Amino acid sequence: MSKPYPIGEANQPWQAQHKQQWLAQQQIKRSYLDDVVTQIQQLSDSFSIIEYGVLEYSHHTYPLFAIKTKNWQEHKPTILVTGGVHGYETSGVHGALAFARNDAQQYETHFNIIVLPCISPWGYETINRWNPDAIDPNRLFYKNSPANESRFAMDFMQAYNHNILCHVDLHETTDTDNSEFRPALAARDGVQNHNWNIPDGFYLVGHTQKPQPDFQEAIITNVAKVTQIAPADNEGKLIGVPLEQFGVINYDGTALGLCMGMTDAPYVTTTEVYPDGLCASAQNCIDGQVAAVKGALEYLIKHNAQ
Questions:
Q1: Rounded CA gap, 111 and 208, in Å?
Q2: Rounded Cα gap, residues 292 and 81, in angstroms
Q3: Domains (range + CATH), the chain
Q4: Closest among 80, 110, 115, 78 to 96, alpha carbons compared
Q5: What's the angle, vertex CA 157, arms to CA 42 and CA 124, rounded to 5?
Q6: Are 201 and 259 in contact (CB under 8 A)?
Q7: What is the DSSP string of the chain?
Q8: Positive or negative CA dihedral for 235, 237, 243, 247?
Q9: 70 and 127 in contact (C-beta within 8 Å)?
Q10: pLDDT in tens, 151-173
């Protein structure tokens, strides 16, 4: 499916010099300040904007921001929306921002809401899955994480973890998974990649410890109004994982150190949008992300979830 990765030796994990070689090849391709921070700042009249950490990477400084509803009431359950854990997954970042800008306030009657729109800003700027240390923040959401992106987010959310009802984590699966990120991962770890499946459309990853199938179904139903839901492959799988229900697979998010496992929320899901599909556009990918968050919240309201 791909050419041998140009860094490292076949079947041998990368050493420090290989990671440095990889880092030297990365280039800034877009602006976190222009694309993301300016949008966050524009929300300051309607939300509390909190700087929860600063990433320092080779002459680049990235402040990290949380968007928090102003009408905060301790008795209400909290909703967490995260985007940009993988910085290259564009609609996750801009879907989180669109939800905050256009929709979050209408749910303040029922919930407190926190949005972390871009957890990995260096990844956003370089269009990367990893951080500069060649590690994946979305496998490192655990105590004393070696990824500052993950650790800062977890440390910030610790104060709210007692009352989080729902966490929706916004992601994409793109053609570059096969052309770049899966080959790079295999090369870094000295293994062979055997999964080349990229689902054609939107799907969800639920948590095996708290799968909530009705909740996942409600999200899929709402997203289907705006974008295509990915069918399973010929083996009844998505990305090599058996289908649980239409458009849904499950991972153990806690054991794997995924962002969706970072809190004790009983309702969690990870979205996956496919921006490279023939029927996809940047806007309907963002619309799909927003529809996922709204579908989740409408389900919780309808069922009076606590």
A1: 25
A2: 11
A3: 16-302 (3.40.630.10)
A4: 115
A5: 50
A6: no
A7: --PPPSSS-TTS---HHHHHHHHHT----S-HIIIIIHHHHTTTTTEEEEEEEEEEETTEEEEEEEEEESS--TTS-EEEEEE-SSTT-HHHHHHHHHHHHHTGGGGTTT-EEEEE--S-HHHHHHT-SS-TTS--GGG--STT-S-HHHHHHHHHHGGGGGGEEEEEEEEE--THIIIIIHHHHHHHHT---------SSBEEEEETTB--HHHHHHHHHHHTTTSPBPPP-TTSEETTEE-SBTTEEEE-TTTTT-GGGSS--SEEEEEEE-TTSTT--HHHHHHHHHHHHHHHHHHHHHTT--
A8: negative
A9: no
A10: 999 999 999 999 999 999 999 99
pLDDT in tens, 86-101: 999 999 999 999 999 9
What pLDDT does residue 2 have? 56
pTM, to two decimals: 0.97
Structure tokens at 217: 């179904």
